[in-house]
Each structure stands twice: as C-alpha cells, then as structure tokens.
Specification:
Helix 1 crosses helix 2 and helix 2 packs across helix 4. The chain is 80% helix and 5% strand. The radius of gyration is 14 Å and the shape is globular. With 115 residues, the chain is mostly helical.
Length: 115
C-alpha cells in the first residue's frame, strides 16, 4: 500500500512539474502514473549499472555526476513513454532535480502522517 501511495505522489509531482516547466509535457494523469512507474523501474534496474560504469567520473566530480545519471534516466523515460516529452537534457536535469526535491517533501509528509 505504501508503494502505491508513493507512486501516486510521484505521479502528482510529475504533473505539477509538467505544468511549471515549459520544456516538459505530460498528456494526462494516466501518463503521469506510467511515468512514475517507469522512472521507478529505471532507477531500480538501470541506475546501479550506470553508477558502477561511471564510478571514476562520479568520484572525480564528488557525486555531482549522479545528477547527469538521473537526467539520462528521465530521457530514457521520455523515449519509452509516448505521453511524456522532455525537450533537452537540460530540461531533464532540472526536472530530475525538482522531482527529487518534491518526492522528498511528499514522502516526508507521508511518513509524518503515519507516526
């Protein structure tokens, strides 16, 4: 149940960011839920592989390259989902950064309500 609620909160964050950012578009709430699921799967499957492959540059940049990896994951979601569009890697970078911030806010509110 908690996972479904987290996915729905992520979908809400996707819709909010698509309304705010001009370089990001989502067709509807159904597409936003699919984006949330695909991004979660890509973060679970692809991100560890990318982190291991780019470990030297991640160490050199003191972890800032992880932002680029997140942007690549957003661009991959753009490729796989027809109802989701991101114009460039720069919009994907900003979108992934703001999505992470919104997710942390939403999830902290969710955790506080359970206590």
């Amino acid at each position: 149940m908690k996972t479904i609620l987290r996915l729905l909160l992520t979908a809400l964050a996707v819709v909010i960011l698509a309304k705010i950012l001009p370089g990001v578009a989502v067709e509807g709430y159904g597409s936003a839920i699919i984006v949330a699921i695909v991004v979660a799967l890509l973060r679970f499957i692809v991100k560890p592989i990318l982190v291991v492959l780019t470990l030297p540059i991640t160490i050199i940049t003191l972890g800032l390259f992880l932002l680029v990896i997140n942007a690549v994951i957003i661009m991959m979601a753009d490729y796989f989902i027809p109802g989701f569009a991101v114009e460039s890697i720069w919009w994907a970078l900003l979108f992934s950064l703001l999505l992470s911030i919104l997710q942390s806010i939403f999830h902290s509110v969710l955790d506080n309500k359970k206590q």
